[in-house]
Amino acid sequence: MASSEASRALSTTSVVAATKDQVSSDLAGEAVILSLQTGMYYGLDQVGALIWERLRTPTSVADIRDAIVQQYDIDSEGCERDVLTFLQQLVDQGLIEIRDGTPS
Amino acid sequence: MRRQASPIDPAVEAVLQTLRLGAEVDAAGLARRWAAVDPAGLAALVEYEGCVLWLYQRLQELHILGAAPTEFVEWLSARAHRLMAYNLVVDAQRDQLVRLLNEFRVPHVLLKGAARRLMADVHAYGSARTTTDVDVLVPHEFAGPTWARLQSAGFVSTPGPGFTCEGHFHLPPLRNGGGVAVELHTSTSTFVPAPVAWERMRGSARVAQCQGGPTQVPSATELLWHGITHAPLPHAGAFRIRYFQDAAVNWAARAEIDWDQISTRLASLELPDPILARRWLGTAWNLVQPDRSTRPIGTASALHLGRALTWRLTVFRRFGEARSDAAPQVWGPRLVSRGRRLLIDEATRAELGLPLIPQPRTAFAPRAGRRLAAAAAGVCYRGWCTLRRAQTPMEE
To answer: Which of B1, B120, B276, B343 makes a 20 to 30 Å CA pair with A36?
Structure first.
């Protein structure tokens, strides 16, 4: 799905947050997200759900990366790449937005 | 004297052990049990019982989902995500309704699934159920004007075929294009006057927050009681896990339930068949704690759930889908679906000692045909019991 957000580049300093056009629910540690705009739903595994939980409030990509690295004891560089890819997919689907400013 | 129990299908045993709340679970043993399960017909059984979300959550939380047969896990996972997504649609409708009711300053209490979805913190697995519409109780004098105001706010009345307000305790359903119906209730049952229903629900309700603002949800006692009255007794379909769940999660959460109040209501004329309701409660209790000595309702004798589900699974296996990867069509109008439901319903009725019931409002010939088919289904079940040397007492 094309989005105006998609044209904005994501970087570790970007601040991202869930949009208002979605609702989500925990499902035994996973997450299910429903886009209210498209009616499509998405399933996130436990790592995705952990990231999603942080996206409920504006958060920097670097903070998300650090939380994952701390939780799963993986290398920071690979984690950053994966997190950016994942967040870009969420941006493309209109589930999160890139915000200006600093995280709250 | 208790005779030897009939064999319960290993798949049924695994499902029941996984669902059961309030007891210690040997996760490793249960994983081994799941690994040995024959998945044939299991998806259809779980769909029929309406326990997809509950089972999925339990398997995940016990970390044994991967032990179950792959094709079943794939189906269960996809189905659970789909149902949860639909619950989110219902949540969004609930939020919108609450926002409007607050705007209109209409006092209200959410009912059934709409309430339970907001109470996951209190009753674990209470929200792990499929919710199809938003039910809300309002004072009788507010119901008509609120129904009209909602229509001016974009809702449209969409009564189903044959719907009539007469004798009903809710107004015709409203929709606003979102697909999820809203029902304004004036009572919780045909047998409870509107002022009594409001006093009960409102009097013990607690405040909850949703995205639509503050709202109210019923107390544990009222949720349990509404679970009993909402189960479509005396129909055999009430003896499905979907309905038992509403009672079981309250118990399992050790919620403060006023059992004196429940007993008083069971002894009143509020339910068409209080004895059957007690047996229904006793069956629900088996999903909480198999220790019968602690059963709170006392003497309620229950349906043998393991045996009932084994028969149901046998029916789904025997008359299953031609393709193993096909989605189970449990509720459709197709002849095979209706036939399976008849076999299941009549077996439940036979276990409970209930008479055959022909479909209402049909002409004599169809009624006679239905009765004949029901009798044949009952004979099939008894024959199956004999073949399995099922010498178990009818109750557990």
So the answer is: B120
Q: Which residues of B touch A28 (CB under 8 A)?
A: 56-57, 59-61
Residue A46: CB atoms within 10 A of its CB come to 11
Residue B165 confidence class, pLDDT cut points 50, 70, 90: low
> Nearest by CB to B89, which of A30, A33, A34?
A34
Residues from chain B that touch A25, judged by Cβ atoms under 8 A, are 84, 87-88, 91
B57 contacts in chain A (CB < 8 Å):
27-28
Pick from B60, B81, B88: which is nearest to A29 by CB? B60
Q: What is the pLDDT of residue B7?
A: 78
Of B198-202, B222-226, B285-289, B308-312, the one with minimum mean pLDDT is: B285-289
Is residue B143, in this structure, part of any structural domain at all?
yes
3 state DSSP class of B301: coil
3-class SS of residue B2: coil
Total number of domains constituting chain B: 1
B335 found inside a domain = no
Q: Rounded mean pLDDT of chain B?
A: 86
Which pLDDT does position B200 carry in this prediction? Answer: 94
Residue A38 touches partner B, C-beta closer than 8 Å: no
Of B388, B376, B363, B368, the C-alpha closest to B313 is B388
CATH number at residue B295: 3.30.460.40
Distance (Å, whole) CA B192 – CA B226: 11
State the greatest distance between any 2 C-alpha atoms of chain B, in Å, as a whole number. 65
Residue B246 lies in a domain: yes
ipTM of the complex: 0.76
Contact flag A41-B92 (C-beta cutoff 8 Å): no
Q: Note down the domain range covering B142.
A: 3-306
**pTM exceeding the 0.90 threshold for the entire prediction:** no
B143, B186 contact by CB (below 8 A): yes
Flag if B82 and A41 touch (Cβ within 8 Å): yes
Quote the CA–CA distance of B114 and B44 in Å, as a whole number. 26
Residue B382 falls within a domain, yes or no? no
Residue for token pair 């009594």: B196
